[in-house]
Amino acid sequence: xxxxxxxxxxxxxxxxxxxxxxxxxxxxxxxxxxxxxxxxxxxxxxxxxxxxxxxxxxxxxxxxxxxxxxxxxxxxxxxxxxxxxxxxxxxxxxxxxxxxxxxxxxxxxxxxxxxxxxxxxxxxxxxxxxxxxxxxxxxxxxxxxxxxxxxxxxxxxxxxxxxxxxxxxxxxxxxxxxxxxxxxxxxxxxxxxxxxxxxxxxxxxxxxxxxxxxxxxxxxxxxxxxxxxxxxxxxxxxxxxxxxxxxxxxxxxxxxxxxxxxxxxxxxxxxxxxxxxxxxxxxxxxxxxxxxxxxxxxxxxxxxxxxxxxxxxxxxxxxxxxxxxxxxxxxxxx
Length: 334
Hints:
It is built from one helix and 22 strands. It is mainly β. β5 and β6 form a beta hairpin. This is Bone morphogenetic protein 1.
């Protein structure tokens, strides 16, 4: 009898130990981990309730080779401190704690959208033993970036007109001068994916699924980079994005440069007519952001290389109800 009781006790103890080990493993899994997916979300423990004290969580996000990770914060609320010594989020451009630092963040201001240079991001969340807050929720998507570079055969100069999808090349004899404003290929297939790097002298691109509605909860970034001595002229042939007075839900953001924090030219929504936009340098960044509800047909746009502008100006459109910001340094003409 005693032996039976002993065996039962051991079985109960063993079962309890296994269950506790599984619970502990699940708890660790809820805080950080390796995320190998094209898109997804991460959040602090207990979100949207207060995160625990003395917590360290790290995530590695990996997307397909050749893609970039685009990380944006839906909400952000950490203990505030001038240099983020207590509770903070640390983001590095790579797959380890030794990768280049992108930024260290705390407080209640959402960080700007972050784009990796490769197919990895490393994120660390740290809380100390005192005050806690609601934490954060972040989503990531991936974008495929294909750069088409012009080729230069020996003794010849080539001028390449390209989008991500198509390329047209004019080969010159090395003696005759090149035209001041090269002409893009007459027939081009628009790039219709979610973001990408567009290079060359001109091209076309559209929002995902255009002219069908773009997806909800989407972040797409296009970077247009042309000849170092030229400017980019951007024209929208069609534009339909969810309407809101301050473009708080779905919007297209245009920046004067190739970086996510380059000077803002404007934030656009609704079905307004947008005039030609000209960069002050050789690059523009265009970001489409959609929330989780209504979506519209999106946009169709073209771009081309133009001679460098010496005195850019910014003019307001006739109605600013759907234009939240037009104070950037680029040229906006009607």
